[in-house]
Structures
1.
Amino acid sequence: MRRSSLLLCLAIFVAVRPGINSDVSAQTSEPPLALWPDKAPHANGESEKDQPAVWVYEASEPKTGTAVVICPGGGYAVHAVDHEGTQPARWFNRMGVTVFVLRYRLAPYRHPVPLLDAQRALRYVRHHAADYGLNTDRIGIMGFSAGGHLASTAATHFDNGDEDADDPVDRKSCRPDFVILGYPVVSFQDEVTHRGSVRNLLGNSPDEEQLNLLSNEMQVTKESPPAFLFHTAEDTAVPVENNLRYFAACRAAGVPAELHVFQHGQHGVGLANQHPALSGWISQAGNWLRQNGLLTSEPTQPLRGVVSVDGMNLPWGTVALKSANEHFPVGWSMVMRGKYSIPESAGILPGEYTASIVDMGDVQPQPTVPDAKPHSRTIKVQIEPGQETLNLEF
């Protein structure tokens, strides 16, 4: 048996083994919410498998107003709801992020049905944003493995909604404001794809046009949302080249993106609980949300100025501006000959900050200050709306 087939069998086993996912509705306090009040479009019947829905995991207080739709993996054959749905949902809840775990339709349903389900989920969340205390411009999508293919498809195939639709949900945009992809199937090109996912989504004989359309690295444009990507180099079921290609496509299109490739780890690691390195991916995803201003409602702003210590410009080092609000981005910059600059893309928000520095000695080629560490003196500074210049005097 090929390794990818073995892993898919393991995923199916995990998804149906009694006590784990045989009753996924028990994972939440409420039953899943159907995305269409009546029969879903293209539905073959009226059973649970024909009715796309979301399990809602509301954020802990204080809520940030940010939400993410999670698409569990499973090769478009099953839903790995627990380790690729419930577990990350609970983690994001603790960050103040509300999560909607998507039950999308699987084989024998073909494209575009799963995409319609993902798009409907995004529209649904945006339409009901006020009910959940959400900002309509901070609704993202996340996916693992084949769910990552669905998420990356939603991130590259979207519209602004139909303003003339009878259903108010369909009037909303289905463009995600950000995307998080964990060891995703991105490409349907033979040399890197997961063939089981291709077969389950497109059948046994897809044509080249379909394969190219759903090779999402080929569909990234400047309108695609910012992306956080993680993978492992040891993944043989879905090669890391899927994420490498998506990252390269984002770079070429000017789309902000962050990529983490871990040396160790097989396919389907989920949160990689207790792994000393790989388990850090979700904390890094949280940091990425924070540093991109996706956990706050105000826009970030650039800041620049001069850093001086005892009246002398700091020759070489770093400066960090930290807010007491854990959801605010940390303003950070290298300092060269006293000057620092924090761009808007990595900017900060108005409010009170604690500024600290690290002195790394002279800019000239010579040993740096022994045991460079944060300066013993910190200062409180107030940043006003629209302020772009601030000199820091220690």
2.
Amino acid sequence: MRIGFLGSGAFGLPTLEALLAAGDHEVAIVVSQPDRPAGRGLKERPTPIAEFALARGLPLRRPSDVNAPAEVAAIEAAGPEALVIVAFGQKIAPAVLGTRFAINLHGSLLPRWRGAAPIQRAIEAGDAETGVCVISIAERMDAGVVHRAASTPIDPLETAAELHDRLAALGPSVVLPTLEDFRLGRLAPSVQDESLVTRARKIGRADTRVDPAELSAAEIRRKTHAFGPKPGCEVSIGPSRVKLLRVREDGEARGVPGTLGTDGSIACREGSLVPIEVQPAGGRPMRWEEFLRGARVAAGTRVEPMAAEGGG
């Protein structure tokens, strides 16, 4: 089939690559977000999808509003029989969809975690597994019928960035069979159970606040892996400001909650936390043992939150 691909983030790259590699589909048009300032110099850069499309010589449009009449006309002129939408970043109006078969790849096992940050919220909640779904486009966010899904366990030491890449790699395994089901007239979608819906709200600075005196080691582990490295969970350890990158739990609290233990662990409200990798402010990521050697902080030093209150 002729495919229109609407995507911006790197989450869609494996699916777009798979569509090209399959050989039985033609990517008739790629639509992505406009170039944005990025990096230290804030130089304008294309999205990961736009960059890939440019490198492959694919027909590409980068509108600020995909619903503008000129963009709707451009998609119509490309003549796609189906639209595949992955991490596009704009609300798509019915005029764009027309009467075509249109699907969206979502990074959770719907109806769990509808919304902006499904991968991070799954880790924060301590979910044992997550996955990807292919859904239809609906008026309400992520509320469409589910065509296919694939699940995967979440490792306790896995970060959101790592899980993002694993879920992205799962995308082709559900998107390509769904397109084939549509072509052969054998779609069998399931309606989401509204009573099971959970919301994956946008991440705010308040989400990243971790206070060992108030939270358990398990809660801090989940927040650290869900929200790092950006915006990241930061703490002050004596005079040092440190971003936690990867941590593990280690038994009962050894010392006063919110302080550094003699063995280098951090005593929490429940349990002990052992950082594995950290990043001092203005510095590079490093092993926890390396930081302790350089910082020379004593046992009993307070470990306190740095993130400001607020956010949403």
3.
Amino acid sequence: MPLSTGGLHELAHRLTGGSTGNPQHHWQFIYNRIAGASAPQTVANRIRSLWRMDKSPGAISATAPASTAPTTCGTTTLGAMQISSASGSSYTVLLGVEAMAAAASNSGVLVLYDRLLQCGSFPNNTTAANAMTTGTNVDRFNSTVSTSPWFAGGNQIWIENATALGSTAVNCQVKYVNELGTSGRLTPLTPLAGAAASGIDQIIPLPLQAGDKGVLQLESFQVGIGGTSQGVALAHNVIIARPLLSLPITAAGYGSWRDTLSGLPALPLIPNNRCLAWTFLAYAAADPTLYVGAHFVDTG
């Protein structure tokens, strides 16, 4: 990949604005607000989507997807991290991330991910399957070749609660196309709502069918498997996400940093039509207020 033959010398040259590389350092303050109003509290030991949280710089209050038709996310999607695309045939390399928590209760694990595709407004008061075939694969991380840097193995299906759910757990299932292009694959039954998965903006990663490593398309989403629905029209979003890097925050007032030059994953490639965003696995119930940074350079 790509910084050609110059090694560390060339990398340092690009990071200081030399050659054709474009260094980008993106710092964001993530507020505990959604469109200026107080955000729901994060549930301890659960994954919180930071997609709708107000950010500076960045889009204020990115909205949840409103259509059950899958939509490709990209650089112009409201809520995407605003970094420039590389020019020509170049790509962007992720050099590292950093973060600091504003309060003691804000410790947890941040995950930087590429939001490949999203669809939403699926009610959970029906047991009918909701068809949502895209007809085409995701537009990046879509190779069926395992040795490709764009291999679809690693793409995940996440449920994102668009509204706070009730106390009655219901099972859900997604039909999808796997990383090799095989259709009709089914996620194991996974409970939504109930005490474990009811918070607004909570993310529930779905396991894939045995043997699968990734996802290319979504085909349908169904709740209330077995004939039981929750009885109220509460909404879920379904997304395909590609996790890129995780960063633990152990305590307030302490900065955390991960670089990909001396650690793993090593200098991951970031596609041009990316939609970068964050999730947060909270160690305790909290109102997340975070200062985060992500650092990139073009391959030239």
